[in-house]
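ugh ok fine here u go
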Amino acid sequence: MFSKAALAGVLMTITTAEARIVLSSPDGNVQATVSTDADARLLYAVTFQGREVLAPSPIGVAIDGADCGLSVELGTAEETACDVAFAWRGNHTEAKLRGRAASIPVKPKDAAPWTLELRCFNEGVAYRCVISGEGERRVTGEAAAWNLVEGTHAWCNPNTKDCEGTHERHLVNVIPSETFKESIALPMTLELPGGGFAAITEANVMHYSGMTLEPTGQWQVKASFRDDPEGWPMKGVIETPWRVLLLAADLNTLVNNDLVAALCPAPDPKLFPDGIRTDWLKPGRCLWQWWAYNDPGTHWSKQ
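structure:
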């Protein structure tokens, strides 16, 4: 899916206090910056159409209780182009996205190096952490959080069980914790101050706990893993899902944003030789019994 080429859009500057890697989308409207602060915490920030939409926000995975985003140095980024095209359904038959990518070595002070993969598309920004290793280890959470710009409104779904709750609109700093005591289901749609929209979500969630978001009472929401509060075991390489920030000038563009699909693997060619055009796939009307009978089990007469 990804073509490789040298990028002019990646800059890296290093000072004694911090390192910065800046990655821009092909159209120049989206820019992601990976940096470390004075305490060597790994951070990223995002601008859209020249305006800050995400202030520096923490990145890190806790493995056996140790946060790999703390006390780190950044290595030299490897830059590639990642233009994507694939067959799709809906109001367009092909999805086309143009983006740029950076593979960034991250070197913790007291742990093995790992890789931060960053993508910056015209449609948004995504990152994931790839942590090499052997044997079984336990992921006990993430430091991931989103420090949003003052004045940002969020549309929040309090139902994390089946994601069918009524969305509520709140300023991010006053999302009521009593309403969202079970956290916030993804995606969270954001109204940006000064115009435009964004959404926080994830992509390619495989062998990993699903993420929800918790309000903090500030202009921040943070990652939560309520289904696995004690963590979960993983063998070999630990690869997080993509942490995605969709960006759009209007809601129509946001709804038709194909970035999540673009970040997921292509269909297995052995099972789907022509992708979603494989002839045994027959899209059509679907029946859903829960709307009429709540949870009756599998009864074909009710189907």
